[in-house]
Amino acid sequence: MNKRILIISGLLLIAGCSEQQETNTAVSSLLQACPGFVETGKPPLVSGAQCGRLTVKENSADPASKNIDIEILRLPAISPAAQQDPLFLIQGGPGGSSVEMASFIHGFFADVRKNRDLIFVDQRGTGKSNPLRCEQLSEKDLQLPESAQMEKYFHLMEQCSEKFKTSLPFYTTLHAVQDLDAVRYALGYKTINIWGVSYGTRVALEYANRYPQSTRTIILDGVAPKEIALSKFSARDSLAALTAVNDECQLQPECVREFGDILQKAETVYARLQLADQSGSPLVINYEHPVYQQPEQLTLTAKNFSMLIFNALYSRDLTVLLPQAISEAERENYRLLAALFSLAMEQSQKMNIADAMHFSVLCNEDWHFISASDVETTPPFFGLNAIKDRNKICGFWPKANLPDDFWQPVRSEVPALLLSGKHDPVTPESWAELVAQGLPASVRLLAAGGNHGVSYEGCVPQIIAQFVERGSMRDVKTDCVANIKPLPLMLGANQKKSSSSSAASSAVSVDAADEGVKP
Predict the structure, then answer these.
(1) Residues 6 or more apart in contact with residue 440 via CB below 8 angstroms
(2) How many distinct helices (H) and strands (E) make up the chain?
(3) How would DSSP label each residue in 102-131?
(4) Which end of the chain, N or C, is more open, meaning fewer C-beta atoms within 10 Å of its C-beta?
(5) How many Cα atoms are found within 13 Å in the side-chain-facing hemisphere of 476?
(6) Bridge partners for 71 per DSSP
(7) pLDDT digits (tens, 9 = 90+) for 224-274
(8) CA 284 to CA 326: how far, in whole Å?
(9) DSSP SS3 for 288
């Protein structure tokens, strides 16, 4: 090696050390060790986990605007010579906390963390980033008839919109990506990789759109385009997901013998519950909680039934129990259905959605596409009409001033990995296909046995790690995704139970002689 090459090599080495030192200095000034066991009663997620906050203006265009804090969690790379382009992870909702999500998902990104930091940022209005939450229905309210509950709920939402009316216009995806880039800059990273799930994919897409020079790769799991309103298609997509489950049952003789046509039975159950609601005597189910084994009671309305199916389709584990639960309900045994409702609602509540921020995004971004005729003509999913309910709220929600180009499809050369699940009731593969049209460096993967969010299934964590490591999908093998098949459907008490079934059915008695139903 000649002297000139030695000098150049030395300069490159010095430059590399300088960049890492700059990043480490920025991190150390903003982040500190997360509270330990003494303060929280819980150990840190990983050794060296760091927490901190970045202060930004609520209205970035107004220097006199109030300050808000953006919550940050850093799980440092394992390697002492880590790459300086971390993976930012964005929760969905909208309204979910990315920092709270870390405890559930960080293990799936262990291969990424070998060489890169994992950064979780609570979007403004969520988690600990100036959360915007509305008052909820009280236990007393929940004893009211369903129509009275909805009337009270809309009243609470209107009060909430008034309470936060000066802030809500600044809690949109566009403001979120400005915060995200401010965090990137404050931590000293020149480029970042971004993983988003559900609504988090919209944030990732918009960041790549507004800050292409700072975006190395994006991973979109359950793609939510900004150029459509998902609610407009939720009935169609939910029905397609349930139909896929029914189709899989029809391919298995033992499933057909046990359950028959699941769609037809679901319609029968829905109609029966509707009649009970209209008579003023909805069904009250007494059952045992499938996990905690404690007595529970559920007023099972037609709307609750629809919500159960919709929410269960989010989960791979709960989906396998739907045929049995619906079939037993058709025979007027509702205990498994009630237990599933508990599990589905608990999964939903774990998201801890900041509802004021949630509606700020939906009403200012999605309702751009909803017309009055859509509200009247869009078919419901077993009576569940998201458009009508949300349209009432969006009618009084404070308006944001978004640029006209916000709703244009994203066109980007950034390498992208798009993930979809066949049973996803809200972000099906068709939306990934739509977004991919503007991402020439993208690869789409469909998990036949996946639901809403497939980053945690089978070999997908390893595929994500390889994609982030290489910066492209070139030479990354994806054949293994075909092994993510639908879990075996749970058969009834007289059939051999699959070892992959969730704990719900074993914890819930299916004795038809003791239905636990009150008229």
Answers:
(1) 413
(2) 20, 12
(3) HHHHGGGGHHHHTTS-EEEEPPTTSTTSS-
(4) N
(5) 23
(6) 53
(7) 999 999 988 988 999 999 999 999 999 999 999 999 999 999 999 999 999
(8) 17
(9) strand
Strand stretches in 16-130, DSSP E:
31-33, 50-57, 67-75, 87-90, 118-121
Q: How far apart are CA 115 and CA 113, in angstroms?
A: 5
Domain 25-131+170-227+407-483 listed as CATH 3.40.50.300: no
Q: Which residues of the chain have pLDDT under 70?
A: 1-28, 37-38, 492-519
pLDDT score, position 304? 86
pLDDT score of 343: 86
For residue 94, cis peptide bond before it (omega within 30 degrees of 0): yes
- Kindly give the residue spans of alpha helices, DSSP state H, lying in 139-261: 146-163, 173-186, 199-210, 230-250, 253-259
Query: Of the candidates 350, 417, 454, which has an alpha carbon nearest to the alpha carbon of residue 102?
Result: 350
Q: In this predicted structure, what is the pLDDT of residue 512?
A: 27
The tokens for 510 are 């299916």
- Whether residue 409 contacts residue 436, with contact meaning beta carbons closer than 8 Å, is answered with no
Q: How far does Cα 424 stand from its chain's mean position?
A: 11
Domain residue spans of the chain? 25-131+170-227+407-483, 230-351+488-518
Report the pLDDT value the prediction gives residue 14, as an integer from 0 to 100: 28
**Amino acid (one-letter) located at 39:** E
Cβ contact 467:473 at 8 Å: yes
By the 8 A CB rule, do 244 and 215 touch? no
Tell me, rounded to whole angstroms, the distance of Cα 41 from its chain centroid: 27
Read off the amino acid at residue 195.
W
Whether 244 and 224 have beta carbons less than 8 Å apart is answered as: no
DSSP 402: -
Residue environment code for 29-49, b if the CB has 16+ CB neighbours within 10 A, otherwise e: ebbeebeeeeeeeeebbbeeb
Whether the full predicted model's pTM is greater than 0.90, yes or no, is: no
Which tens digit of pLDDT belongs to each residue from 31-50? 999 988 667 778 878 999 99
Lay out the sheet containing 517-518: strands in order across.
295-300, 283-288, 517-518
Q: What share of the chain is helix, strand, coil (3-state, %, to 5)?
A: 50, 15, 40
